[in-house]
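Records of this kind hold a single protein each, on a pair of labelled lines. With that in mind, the following record should read easily:
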Amino acid sequence: MLSGRLIEIFKAIVEDFIQTAEPVGSKTLVDKYHLPYSTATIRNEMMELENLGLIEKTHTSSGRVPSIEGYRFYVENLMKSKIDDKMALVVQSAFADRSLNVDELIKKSCDILSKMTNLTSIVLGPDAQTQRLEHIKLFVIDEKNAVAVFITDTGHTENKMFQFDEAISVHDIQVCCDILNDRLKGTYINEVVEKMNQLKPLLESAIERHEVLFKAFVAAFIKFANENFYYSGQDKLMYQPEFADIERLKELMGMLENSQLWRDIGMGKGNILLKTSDNSQLVWVDDMAVVSSRFKLNSEEEAQLMLVGPSRMDYDHIVSLIEYLAESIEKMLNQGGRND
């Protein structure tokens, strides 16, 4: 158990580093925070905090910075979650537009989260790997346009617009749809394309314009399997001092394209995992922190809202904001006003 003085000094180090991104020295703590201790006493206490693994030296300064274990201790023991009135008002205003459908609402929330925190936000929809195709409904608009509705065993639906380069008969479209419904029902979404390749000879024998329809459905299923992933504010990472190195920044940009990586992180795979509530967690991966909070889309499906940034982030505000936003989305959806 840390003494009151150690906690006071440690808390000041964390909060100063979050604000400035500069290593913190004993003189800064005395001058800026008016701690009632001598610089010699503070240096001794900083050595103790370093021995405990809560702060560490940097290569470029004699000051100290919080370690990942230090951030974990701070969040577990010292963080004061708070959602200020301005943030709450912005969130409530975003939900005032009743014309938004579920996807638009969630994407707008993701954009707001990024703008309010100056960090990168991500939304992970239901994982296609856990969903099976239940049925395909096709609505023909004309010879070159149709809308396909894919329905999964969880009740999740996806609408895909087909725009053909050449005219396709209604009969061919319906036959293709019937074959796929008959042969693909119960197939996991991420395995549908592989199974469709096995059905290609059957489609060739039954449908005149089989190649056009085959390509359209394959493209639609690939999009379905990978589309439940949205991110906003990826450029925000460029302005974080921790990611100033161009190679590190390129690595992070590449990571943002990998939806499976974020699903793994969302499941708690990282260097350190910390649960902040029943539906929320913090994961630290090297010099990066990921705060996430789950919310229900319906009785069967969940989505996850995530915020990505350096380990030096304002946890007091960020954890409370993402939890408030996730709870607000779930509350709105459960009211039945946006399940369209």
Observations:
- The first strand starts at residue 55 and ends at 57.
- The mean pLDDT is 86.
- The domain at 85-127+229-334 is CATH 3.30.450.40 (Beta-Lactamase).
